[in-house]
Amino acid sequence: MCAEHRIQTNLQTKLGLACIIGADISPIDDTLHFMFFKKKRQSMTDKNNSSEQRVFVDAIVQFLSAELCIETTSLIGVEQSESDVKISLPVACKSAHPHLVDGLKKVELVNPDMRVVFNQNIPIMHAPKALVPNVKNIIAVSSGKGGVGKSATAINLAYALHHQGARVGVLDADIYGPSVPIMVGQQHNSPESPDNKYMIPIEANGIVTNSIGYLVKNDHASIWRGPMASKALQQLLNETRWPLLDFLIVDMPPGTGDIQLTMAQHLPLTASVIVTTPQDLATADAEKGIAMYEKLNIPILGLVENMSEFLCPHCHQTTDIFSSGGALRLAERYQYEVLASLSLDPLIRESTDNGVDIIDQHRDGNSAQKYLEAAQKLSTNLINQLEISEEALAQQMRIDITQIDK
Questions:
Q1: Interatomic CA distance for residues 249 and 235, integer angstroms
Q2: pLDDT tens per residue, range 154-194
Q3: Could you report the per-residue pLDDT of 225-276, keeping only the tens digit for each?
Q4: DSSP character string of 293-312
């Protein structure tokens, strides 16, 4: 028996019972008798419909929670009408929407002719410091050493989150080696400042960015001491007029020295992601990065392993140029998730060199799909591991200016 038929059968049974009960009552006036039972029947119909609808809504929530691995079901919103179902999700998962619709219809929680509309409401998670205006969550992308593809990961995760339905910005915190302007194809651009106080971030491929690279030419080295570099980063963060963002991805400088520690302490970070390659030298340095963030009580949402293997385009054999399984062993040791293991893919290098979005240009490619999966895992781990900001809860998470948790 299909779900719709089951609802109708239950409803008819209950209404029939009401009529039987009514036959035993003999009111003085036939008109009053008719009006009484008409009102009674409507009341029971409304109550029954409401109860049945609640059951279906709860079932839809449980289904979505299981499919998306969301631990807090209260973050999922469902509104059902006769013609459509409106679903509000707390994670960035746009690529999963068709699969979710097919699943809901397959288990008969949604009628085949119903329209399913998704809305993604990314919550504001608790951070140790007050966040930046209009920025919900700030995620640091870090590495223990240079040359492991940290900046490429930061940019491509930002693109992936954008394609998954989130509003995303990127802050280039690598003061000494800014690469974000080149990676988004805006190296000849500079941010405008209409009021000479705040900069307007530069939009590229659906995300907004700011970097010291927009302000200092490539042939002018940033020969600054640590405090000066930290101050420059604070200005970039706080003097940029960010639009409303679900995520601000921060491309941190590589290493775990004084400047990295100072920046991590002064930035209002919500969480972090660690980037490494499989080789022992890289994972040893990544371990130091994990230790730094754990000491600072900044949650780590997972690890990204770059250059995990090389697939020869001619013989199609796989070669582990930089060893294998390093990130997985590290993740098991510290109980973190590997968000993605990315191969040595020429498309990653080409897209970042040419300032194009790899997902937009090569969506069906292996690397693009892995970035999309990593973005969804990052978004899911964020709400599963952290608590929602108390101030955001008090304001029902409908706030644009997010000076929260002071």
A1: 16
A2: 999 999 999 999 999 999 988 878 899 999 999 999 999 99
A3: 667 777 778 888 889 999 999 999 999 988 877 777 877 888 889 999 999 9
A4: HHHTT--EEEEEE-S--EE-
Q: Which domain holds residue 52?
A: 25-120
Q: What is the CATH number of the domain that holds 162?
A: 3.40.50.300
- Give the integer Cα–Cα distance in Å for 217 and 1: 69
**Dist CA 124 CA 390 (whole Å):** 9
Tokens in use for 228?
Answer: 């000066």
Work out the burial of residue 398: count CB atoms within 10 Å of its CB; fewer than 13 is exposed, 13-18 middle, 19 or more buried: exposed
Of 95, 120, 145, the domain-final residue: 120
Q: Is residue 30 part of a domain?
A: yes
Q: How far apart are CA 275 and CA 255, in angstroms?
A: 11
Number of compact structural domains in the chain: 2
CA 310/CA 159 separation, integer angstroms: 23
* Any domain includes 205: yes
What is d(CA 272, CA 144) in angstroms, rounded to the nearest whole number? 13
How many CB atoms sit inside 10 A of residue 105's CB? 15
Lowest mean pLDDT among 38-42, 82-86, 232-236: 38-42
